[in-house]
Specification:
Largest sheet: 4 strands, antiparallel
Bound molecules: heme C
Distance between the termini: 25 Å
Strand content: 5-15%
Order of helices and strands: EEEEHEEH
Oligomer: single chain
Helix content: 10-25%
Length: 231
């Protein structure tokens, strides 16, 4: 989930997961070790699978493990077992980890008591949120410019782009690895590389997509998004 606030045109990028998606290891403690595993079953993890065999992409073609499709059942094999390597996304702000746990527990408490259909959200944990220093977003910002949950990932979408440690910053991966000022295109063949643009954060707005936003951004930092929104 993303949203912007004043002075944060880069958006704040947060993610939530169902409690039973996968095992979660405390920030900076994951090792792909053959002697580590979790005995419980999760939606995306078979109990007892060694951590040396998790988060391994199966791919079509000659890669190993090779991804196969059974045309009759429409099932893909092998299944990938997944683990969330950083339980709170490597949160690096004062009290950050405690704040995430407190928000999750308060929200789950309120939602669980609710009779509304939204009470189902009591089954979700906030993993974390990542953003940048106020007014610091520029045409060269990337994942290393981040603060907050600097190794944030969601097991279902970023299974294979998880960094084991939140330091050094040069090695972190988070949402800004892909959602950054680099322009993407879904056209084939792709057009010549477009200059970086601050709006490129959202891939929904990519050149060639139905929601394409013309690449007319000057590089000027949008400090007050609200002024633009109201027109
Ligand atoms: C490995 C690259 C990569 C990473 C890392 C990544 N995303 Fe994305 N994200 C994409 C791509 C590509 C799409 C567009 C998918 C499509 O529409 O086919 C996308 C789409 C989205 C969308 C839909 C709207 C939009 O702006 O495109 C949201 C919201 C989103 N991602 C949130 C996140 C969050 C939150 C994180 C960090 C926890 C994250 N993403 C990390 C590549 C990435």
């Amino acid at each position: 989930m993303v949203g912007y606030t004043e002075n944060h045109p880069e958006f704040l990028w947060g993610t939530f997961e169902l409690k039973k998606n996968s095992p979660q290891t405390a920030d900076n403690t994951f090792t792909p070790s053959a002697s580590r595993s979790d005995s419980n079953n999760y939606t995306l993890y078979k109990g007892g699978t060694p951590f040396s065999q998790v988060n391994v992409p199966a791919q079509p073609g000659a890669h190993r493990p090779q991804l196969r499709l059974d045309p009759a059942s429409q099932k893909l094999t092998p299944a990938t077992n997944a683990v969330l390597e950083n339980q709170t996304g490597g949160e690096n702000q004062p009290n950050g980890v405690g704040n995430i746990f407190a928000i999750t527990s308060q929200a789950q408490g309120i939602l669980a008591k609710s009779k509304a259909p939204q009470s189902t959200f009591a089954n979700y944990n906030l993993i974390g949120t990542v953003w940048m220093k106020a007014n610091s977003y520029n045409l060269n910002s990337d994942q290393t410019s981040a603060i907050g949950s600097v190794t944030l990932a969601n097991t279902t979408a970023e299974t294979f782009v998880q960094a084991p440690k939140n330091t050094p910053m040069a090695n972190v991966v988070n949402c800004f690895l892909c959602h950054n000022p680099t322009s993407y295109s879904f056209q084939t063949p792709p057009p010549a590389k477009l200059p970086n643009r601050l709006i490129a954060l959202s891939h929904v707005l990519a050149a060639g997509s139905p929601y394409e936003v013309p690449n007319s951004i000057s590089g000027q930092l949008l400090l007050r998004p609200d002024l633009f929104r109201r027109k």
